Amino acid sequence: MSSSFGHETAVLADPVVPGRFTATLSEDWRAxxxxxxxxxxxxxxxxxxxxxxxxxxxxxxLFVSPVPPGSVTVDVTVLRRGRTVSQASATLTTATxxxxxxxxxxxxxxxxxxxxxxxxxxxxPVEHCRSVDEMALAEGIELPPMWRQLDARLAHGHSPRDxxxxxxxxxxxxxxxxxxxxxxxxxxxPVALLVLxxxxxxxxxxxxxxxxxxxxxxxxxxxxxLLEPARGEWILSRARAxxxxxxxxxxxxxxxxxxxxxxxxxxxxxxxxxxxxx
Length: 278
Description:
This protein has helices at 4-8, 37-49, 132-139, 193-197, 201-208; strands at 12-13, 20-25, 56-63, 70-81, 85-94, 97-107, 130-131, 150-156, 171-177, 219-226, 235-245, 248-257, 262-272. It is mainly β. It starts with a helix and ends in a 6-residue tail after the last strand.
């Protein structure tokens, strides 16, 4: 795909070792110290996709250690290859060891029931929402490179340094890729939704407010379930934090396609707190 995301997640099959793929991560998706966890999970998912014709349905990722920019290797193991449902695992390694372990479920369409028990949030139109770039400029915040790849608009919630008291963790953003990775039918690359899923930390800031001091929330594990093809220009993300305790926090993210009013993906995440020194 001729996009920054497509280039970043391009994998090359090893001609000698079956199931092994190599890739190179750039600085373009750093957020803030290392490449975004969603982009590294997407890279593992991309490698697994090479071995199946069935659509990707779910990806579960354990983030073992930081993945720095540079060369990575992804070893894929086919766990089951079924007529309609298949599974695989992938281990991404760097020069320093294992970076992440991911498992994925692939599946063709099957007979079943069609219903939804959730509704798309009613939010202000994207043209009425402040962009991340505008908020960062107004509040003197230097954005990491990842935000040069995305156009993000705050639809519900507070900017990072807004002193107003907070009573909820719910935060809603409009997102689109500045270079959208779409196929010839205009469908967004489903693997790209892993990047948008891994934006849940904003819900923590929404709840804690601007007086909490400096903190980071690296991801321990993340699961993304891909539910519908996304065709709209924008994706509406509603992130919430369920519970914070013992230095860990549970979060979720709904990714909606406003063009169809459908839930394109649902993600959950377990993160832990880190407090860098000044």
